[in-house]
Amino acid sequence: MVDFAGWRMPVQYGSIVEEHLATRRAAGLFDVSHMGRLTVAGPGAIDWLEGLLARRVAGIEPGQARYTLVTGRVPGGSDTVILDDAIVARDTDAPDGSPRLSLVVNAGNRERVVAWLESQLPPAGVRLADETFGTAMIAVQGPRAVGLVASLADVADAERIGALRPYRTTVAEIAGHAAGVSRSGYTGEDGVELVVRAEAAEPVWNAIHAAGAPVGLVACGLGARDTLRLEAGMPLYGHELREESDPFAVGLDLGVTLDGRVFPGAERFANLRARPQGRVRVGLGFEGKRSAREGSTVWDGGREVGVVTSGSFAPTLGRAVALALVDRDVSSIGTPLDVLVRDVRQAARVTPLPFYRRA
């Protein structure tokens, strides 16, 4: 157990490699309650978020979710930066027909995202609530994940869960408890994420674990979560994505909709798209198991050309991989490079992303 953004979180329950492989082969069960969960409601909710998020919110349908970036200013700052990446979803509309939306943000950025959004609230028409401590979030990932969760619901809810498309949401009763269900995750596998009331977290977790253990499900910690997302080439805020990042250079084009829209940082993003500059994110593959770590430098002969942002042994692949930011002239697939790992140069090659893609 470790402190993680103010939460006590498990790095591993047993073996990180075993947890990782269980998720690829059957299912992994993750407590991700540390993620921030915010709700935005009211007649002006969609228009308000449309002016604050980098991806278009106008036109989002009930039951639809989108990946986006939250841009704004940090307390005391004057420059617009990327405060976080997030998932925005439109929930079932309120009885009066006004929209309700939810935002899932990273634990380490929750407080500053909430502070920024609160500072932008209009006098009326929009309500913002931080639901993080009244709810829990459980991720079930892997080829058996959807079926396992559906088996704990009644027939109608099970059919609805099974029919969900990626980045779609619904509501259901899981093990007798109301849950928001989204077909999404952070592992490169199929799966769902559940949001339940905090008091329901333990019984829902136990029910999923009991149903899944006989077919290979295991509980997974932060260690496996990180190696899974790395194999899937997914960026992590604070590593591949930072306040000053160019989202197009790090492969996050899907999180930005320009087309004349106005939101904090839109002009900077438009300039970056029109005139690409700086380093770009690439995947690096190694022959051996010795892994590079964040901060390891990347070299092209005698020239330093980049830095590793995430690196690890990849259990599914049986070798080490890394994500790195490198100069554009050495970013082509197949380019041979060296990475300085514990003062020893390790041969690497620019590799297509993701490193792993499920069949």
Reconstruct the topology from this structure:
Elements: E1 2-4, E2 7-9, H1 16-25, E3 28-31, E4 36-41, H2 45-50, E5 65-72, E6 81-90, E7 100-105, H3 110-119, E8 127-130, E9 135-141, H4 145-150, H5 155-163, E10 169-174, E11 177-182, E12 191-197, H6 201-212, E13 218-220, H7 222-231, H8 266-274, E14 280-286, E15 297-300, E16 303-314, E17 319-326, E18 336-341, E19 344-351
Parallel strand pairs: 3-13
Antiparallel strand pairs: 1-2, 3-9, 4-7, 4-8, 5-6, 6-7, 9-12, 10-11, 11-12, 14-17, 14-19, 15-16, 15-18, 16-17, 18-19
Helix pairs in contact: 1-7
Number of strands: 19
Q: Major sheet: size, sense and barrel closure?
A: 6 strands, mixed
User: How far apart, in Å, are the first and last alpha carbons?
Assistant: 33 Å
Strand order of the largest sheet: 10-11-12-9-3-13
* Shape, principal axes of CA atoms: globular
Based on helices, strands and strand pairing, what is the structural class? alpha+beta
- Which percent band covers the strand fraction? 25-35%
The whole-angstrom Rg is 21 Å
Q: What portion of residues is helical? A: 10-25%
Unreliable stretches covering 5 or more consecutive residues: none
The run of helices and strands is EEHEEHEEEHEEHHEEEHEHHEEEEEE
- Counting H and I runs of at least 4 residues, what is the number of helices? 8
Q: Provide mean pLDDT, rounded.
A: 97
